Sequence to fold (143 residues):
Amino acid sequence: MSPRVGILVGGDADLPILEQCTTRLEEYGIEHEVEVRDLHATPESVSEYAGTARERGLKVIICAAGMSAHLAGVVASRTNLPVIGIPIASGTLGGFDALLATVQMPEGTPVATVAVNGAANAAVLAAQILALSDSELAERLEG
Fold:
């Protein structure tokens, strides 16, 4: 099966936070992929990923970033798939800056945002979105 959830992370340092997300997706039986894309070094790579997501079979994109917290917003501006942002605690503000950068999006470019380091909830939200058109997954979520 091809992945239904794409997970983008701004850098290798943020990967440990995603373990709760990937573990939860695996428990639900949801195929996913994890990609590290540095928005500052290779913005065209992030645009390409988001712009081709639907044709590659993705249904939801989760973005996790601390110091490049605008990753989710950039992705949301390049696709009409649901985008979920996980602000990562980093820097001098402990993730508050990442939270604001993720949640404060302009009209027409929404990003569903979970708590700082809220990777498990990002997986649950992605599963709930997918369950709208997948009755078997909906049953698994009920159990």
The helical segments are 19-28, 43-51, 71-76, 96-103, 119-131, 135-142.
